[in-house]
Specification:
The complex is a heterodimer of chains A (about 120) and B (about 900). Chain A is α+β, with helices and mostly antiparallel strands and about 120 residues long. Chain A has a single domain (about 1-125), classed as 2-Layer Sandwich (Beta-Lactamase). Chain A has 5 helices and 5 strands. In chain A, the strands form 2 sheets. In chain A, strands 1-2-3 form a 3-stranded antiparallel β-sheet, with helices on one face. A two-stranded antiparallel ribbon of chain A has the order 4-5. Chain A is globular. Chain A starts with a helix and ends with a helix. Chain B is mainly α. The radius of gyration of chain B is 39 Å and the shape is elongated. The chains are: A alpha+beta (about 120), B mainly alpha (about 900). The interface between A and B is large, with 45 and 60 residues.
């Protein structure tokens, strides 16, 4: 779950595209403590999905959330890869927007997450 | 159509986002910045276009560059606002996305221009527009926006479309934070949603309460029944996790609540297959319900399962949970001891560290040796980084509270020696400090310490490792300082002068030389028979007595020390050895080294004739032996740790002004500061025998004794700079065991007395003791003040929210007025005023009283008294002009009245 601070600067949490800056990710355990935050991450092929959360958050739930996000993107793009996200960054944003509002998880059903985006695609 | 030309050109040949991304991917890393700035120029042009499509694409590209390449896009803020009014949904999306990503709620001033558009979208019939507006609000909301849009949000909270409702709930959290008065308007509707059936809505509303309870749980106690219902009925893991988090905050506030929820939580823990939920149950129990023993047992069992799991994530979390329990329930860790130790050799660094922390938390007097041994073997096997991590933990734990856990200091010092020899060891500094510290604090261990030090000093291989030069410095100091305990001073001298010492940095080398000075003094002293054959020396009676005391004392502590076979030949070869080795150093360009080497050489020069001359004493030779005695006695003066707050214990004499002239003081003190921190032994080199040896003499007598050269210097200094000295009469009243810290050289005489006393008393302890007093009071006070200050600042906002929440839930009307007026004044008002009024205290009282069988909301209404009503109405009148928009929604005086309505409903009892 994106933290309040993270919410105001959402872009920071979208940096899973440029991996080279991400260090210290060789560890196998998916939680890294960083200043006041925990960074929960999960790796999919060459992509790291990082979520910064405060200390209150349930790490395992975040992992599940990441997986849900990936599954959703997978369903939308069909076998999602890095390029899909790169070229459709705004769609990725919209999906996330559907799932998380203001740091609260609001939707967990893949089809409901995707329906607005599909509508949009139809319209354009 | 003046702008038509370029606009058409732009739209025809504009690069799309795809083009931009492809271009970026194709450009080489060096070229990238160039490419970005070129694109940026294009975008600046395009974004001014009147064609919405062109504008939108430009904005889209800019947003992309902003989020992934950190391009500043504040210049485009107004264009985002402009585009947001487009009728085309996709344009609107682009505009709002760029706003959400780039606007800074507190500095972007065009946000206010968005107000109208957002309001329009919030009331739009198209629910996609509404949801877009809501998510934008939750990113860029500032107090003004929150205030202006509260009515719209309030309407949306009861929307029939779940899709909109859940988002409105999530967005309202942000609005609450920015504009606490919105709570009064919206809170009731939010609470109503706790009973809804839609998972999305429930998840949003529970998430909202989870965030709110983190900061100020007490206000939400009245909602416990609703949360309880969700805990029991809900089967959605996301929601359950959040509810558990809420209970983790609430349970400590109300013991009966804990009793009530512990059962369903255990049930969830046993039932669920989802690890995340199971872990949350464990965490809730260990953090908030640990007094429920059976539940705790179950939780510990679950942790064990996690620890045994192959998944490193679970292992890590299991260890973390254990760490939480360990604070109060050590048995849980001890039960899983072998698993924890096993985790030390895990491949994962985080797991290892966590395990290490746990292991160290287990340390006690009984097992410290065993644990250190285990850790040591791990350290030897580990990579350098983790090895040092282990060493650091060991050093830290063992030295905690002045070596609280150590009983066998002999073991510990040899352990320290062992530690220094670990190839990866980089903790030289800490080991150095501890070796010296222990040497000074623990008398009984010195013999062993000297052996350990000898082994370190004598090993030529160690000199090549820069990380442990600090340890060597300590070892050489120890061997010099306690040379009388050494088995073989000659061997020691050879070690101190070995050729490889040239590898040492000058500061350490200076300590080596100083130590060899001490060793040499000791040898000559023994050779001349000054220690045993006192009568041969022409000394006054008192001195003689004192001498005897010292010497016999020393002899008992090490019977072997004075039995070295000292012949004229051996002592001469020793002198020659020193002379050859230190001779070249007298020309060293390092001042410390040069000076000390010269000292030693000077001593040799003085002593040689005496030794060659055998025992035929001429006048001059007598002088020589007398001076060696002086030096020796100066060295045998003991150093002891000085309490950090010793200075504090000196009462401030009348008329001493401490708060003025500090700058001037600094300028003068600057000269004195250097010696103590850089080397060990400078302080006492000038001490004189008379002062040094008389342990038992009392202070006043000492002061009246004939002053010698340095005392007269001192008193002169005192006369000139009287301001910076403590008044002499105050000395008697200050406690004997704490002389002022850090006496500098030329004050040595008076202070030497104190130092002796200190030494005496601080070394009285046997095995384990604590000569130092607890931490300075002043420091702690400072800390407390600081943290209070910070937390107060943070609290302000939360108080506003929770104040409002309490008002809605409990109807404490009193808080309305205060927090309202507070809002108007905002930053200028202080916290306490509000605190008093929010009724924090009331709740706890009330909650215990409340035992009625009715639902709390009803009860409230009945309890109101007429008097309060009147008061309340008055207040309301005053305010009514400001609040008309909210009046409809608010529960009027009736429900809001009774301040002392019961809070915790019957189900808890």
């Amino acid at each position: 779950m994106v933290n309040k601070q993270g919410q105001t600067r959402l872009a920071q949490y979208y940096e899973y595209l440029n991996l080279e800056e991400r260090r210290a990710l060789e560890e196998q355990c998916s939680f890294v403590e960083h200043r006041n935050y925990k960074v929960v991450y999960r790796r999919y092929a060459s992509l790291f999905f990082l979520v910064g959360v405060d200390n209150e958050e349930n790490e395992l739930a975040i992992l599940e959330f990441i997986h849900l996000l990936v599954e959703t993107m997978d369903r939308h793009f069909g076998n999602v890869c890095e390029l899909d996200i790169m070229f459709h960054l705004e769609k990725a944003h919209f999906m996330l927007e559907e799932m998380v509002m203001n740091g609260c998880l609001v939707e967990t059903s893949k089809s409901s997450i995707l329906s607005p985006i599909q509508l949009m695609e139809k319209a354009s | 159509m003046a702008g038509g030309g370029p606009s058409l050109m732009d739209s025809l040949f504009q690069r799309s986002l795809d083009d931009l991304i492809k271009g970026l991917r194709l450009s080489s890393p060096d070229n990238k910045l160039n490419f970005i700035s070129k694109s940026l120029d294009e975008i600046r042009r395009e974004i001014k276009s009147t064609d919405p499509q062109t504008k939108s694409t430009a904005l889209q590209k800019l947003t992309y560059l902003h989020s992934l390449h950190a391009v500043d896009m504040s210049f485009a803020a107004f264009h985002s606002v402009e585009l947001s009014s487009s009728a085309v949904h996709s344009h609107k999306r682009v505009a709002f996305l760029s706003a959400a990503l780039s606007f800074n709620p507190s500095t972007t001033d065009v946000i206010l221009l968005l107000t109208h558009q957002l309001r329009k979208d919030l009331s739009s019939p198209n629910h996609h527009d509404v949801s877009l507006a809501l998510s934008t609000i939750s990113s860029i909301c500032n107090p003004d926006l929150a205030r202006d849009l509260t009515p719209e949000l309030f309407t949306l909270l009861s929307s029939s479309k779940m899709f909109v409702k859940k988002k409105a709930i999530a967005a309202v959290l942000r609005v609450f934070e920015q504009y606490p008065d919105a709570v009064r308007v919206c809170f009731k509707r939010v609470v109503e949603n706790l009973e809804g059936a839609d998972m999305g809505v429930l998840s949003a509303v529970v998430g909202l309460f989870c965030e709110l309870t983190v900061n100020e749980p007490r206000s939400y106690l009245p909602l416990a029944p609703e949360f309880y219902k969700i805990l029991v009925d809900c089967r959605n893991n996301w929601v359950l996790i959040k509810v558990l988090k809420i209970f983790a905050k609430l349970a400590p506030l109300e013991p009966r609540l804990g009793k009530r929820v512990v059962e369903p939580i255990c049930e969830h823990m046993g039932r669920t297959g989802a690890k995340s939920l199971a872990f949350e149950c464990v965490r809730t129990i260990v953090t908030s319900l640990s007094e429920h023993e059976s539940a705790l047992k179950l939780a510990v069992e679950k942790m064990r399962e996690f620890l045994l799991d192959d998944d490193p994530n679970l292992k890590y979390l299991g260890l973390q949970a254990l760490a939480i329990v360990s604070e109060n329930h050590m048995w849980a860790v001890l039960e899983n001891k072998e698993l924890v130790v096993k985790a030390l050799s895990d491949v994962d660094v985080n797991i290892k560290l966590e395990a290490l922390r746990l292991v160290m938390s287990m340390v006690s007097e009984d097992n410290v040796m065993e644990i250190c041994r285990i850790l040591m073997s791990h350290a030897l096997k580990s990579d350098p980084e983790f090895c040092n991590e282990i060493l650091e933990f060991i050093l830290l734990t063992c030295s905690r509270n002045v070596y609280e856990v150590i009983i066998d200091f002999d073991w510990y010092v040899s352990f320290l020696g062992e530690m220094a020899r670990i190839p990866h060891c980089q903790k030289g500094r800490e080991i150095e400090a501890q070796l010296v510290d222990i040497g000074m604090r623990v008398k009984d261990v010195r013999l062993e310490l000297v052996h350990v030090a000898r082994d370190l000093v004598i090993d030529p291989a160690l000199l090549g490792n820069p990380f442990i030069h600090g340890v060597l410095a300590a070892a050489s100091w120890v061997s010099g300082e306690y040379v009388e305990l050494s088995r073989n001073p000659f061997e020691l001298m050879e070690a101190l002068l070995q050729p490889r010492t040239s590898l040492l940095p000058p500061s350490v080398r200076a300590i080596y030389i100083q130590s060899s000075f001490k060793v040499l003094t000791f040898c000559i002293y023994s050779y001349l028979g000054l220690d045993g054959d006192v009568a041969s020396e022409p000394l006054s009676d008192t001195e003689l007595d004192n001498d005897n005391v010292v010497i016999t004392h020393r002899q008992t502590s090490s019977p072997s020390s004075s039995k070295h076979n000292l012949t004229q030949e051996s002592i001469m070869s020793l002198l020659n050895l020193v002379e050859t080795n230190l001779g070249p150093l007298a020309g060293s360009d390092e001042v410390e080294v040069q000076e000390r080497a010269s000292n030693v050489l000077g001593l040799i020069k003085l002593m040689k004739p005496r030794i060659i001359g055998g025992l035929n004493q001429s006048e001059e030779e007598l002088k020589a032996s007398e001076s060696i005695k002086l030096i020796y006695d100066a060295f045998s003066e003991e150093l002891a740790p000085v309490s950090l707050n010793s200075q504090e214990r000196v009462p401030i004499p009348d008329g001493l002004v401490l708060k003025e002239n500090l700058n001037e003081l600094e300028a003068i003190c600057g000269d004195f500061k250097l010696p103590l921190s850089t080397s060990f032994s400078l302080v006492k080199t000038r001490m004189f025998e008379k002062d040094a040896t008389s342990i038992s003499e009392c202070q006043s007598k000492e002061e009246s004794e004939p002053s010698n050269e340095s005392t007269s210097l001192l008193s002169e200094h005192r006369k000139r700079h009287g301001l910076y000295y403590l008044a002499s009469e105050s000395k008697e009243s200050l406690s004997n065991d704490y002389p002022p810290a850090h006496d500098s050289k030329d004050k040595a005489i008076d202070e030497a007395e104190d130092l002796v006393k200190l030494t005496e008393q601080s070394l009285v302890f046997k095995k384990k003791s604590n000569p130092l007093k607890p931490r300075p009071v002043v420091l702690r006070l400072d800390d407390g003040e600081n943290s209070n200050f910070v937390s107060k600042k943070l609290e302000v906002k939360e108080d506003l929210i929770s104040g409002a929440v309490q008002e809605v839930l409990l109807g404490t009307e009193a808080s309305t007025s205060s927090s309202r007026s507070k809002l108007l004044k905002k930053s200028s008002t202080g916290v306490p005023e509000l605190k008093d009024d929010t009724g924090n205290n009331d709740i706890s009282e009330v909650s215990l009283v409340g035992s009625g069988r009715k639902k709390h909301s009803k009860e409230r209404k009945h309890r109101s008294s007429g008097k309060e009503k009147e008061e309340h109405n008055n207040k309301d009148k005053q305010k009514s002009d400001r609040r008309h928009s909210k009046h409809k929604s608010r529960q009027r005086a009736d429900s809001a009245l009774a301040a002392q309505s019961p809070v915790i409903p019957d189900f808890l009892l």
